[in-house]
Amino acid sequence: MSEINTIFFDLDGTLYAMHLLHKEAMQRVGVFFEETYHISRELLSDCIEEEQQAIENRIGQRAPIHNRLIRFQQVFLKFGLPVFPGAGIMYRLYWDFILDNMRPEEGIASLLQALKSDGYHLIIATNMTAEMQYKKIEKLELGCFFEDLITSEEADKEKPDSGFFEYCLKKRKIKPENAIFIGDSLKNDVIGAQNVGIKGVYYHPGQLSEEPLFPVIRSYTEHEAIAALLRED
After folding, report:
1. Mean pLDDT across the stretch 84-107?
2. CATH superfamily to which 6-17+104-231 belongs
């Protein structure tokens, strides 16, 4: 049996509940845009999606695709509106709401403390840019448990690309069998990790619609069950 000594954690949706915050933040952005420029939130939403796809088509799956300021700037240009100061206001509306309202997932702090005390190396490995992810970790007050933050900006590869996970292994100087990867996305985190030989663990609070094909963490309060996952080959 190979000994696991390193645990990679995804950030968004794994250490805190990103998805509901994102929905509410975008609603606030939409209200501002509609009230200020008299263009419906529905049109704004469609335009943001179109511009996001255009950016991805132009540069591929790389960290800048997550930059909402670039996206918002393109939206203003498409509608023939002045970029300044509107795009910046929308950018701050979005991220200020996220940062002000994010909270760590229940039980994660005590779990991280226990894992660190047991000698595991804890690393955050996430898509997006380093600066914004660093801000989130500071807001969550979880940085004291982690040894490193690895972003797709640093790796120049986006999960689930194998290059991202290979970079994580190379930077930490470990073999795939010595690590596990915990995340809330089957595609990006679990399958992406498995493709390079890292054990992938799916974080999914609540019920699953079908029997999982991968190890699952339903709650970070289940310390014994999580410890058992670490011992399994």
Report:
1. 98
2. HAD superfamily/HAD-like (3.40.50.1000)
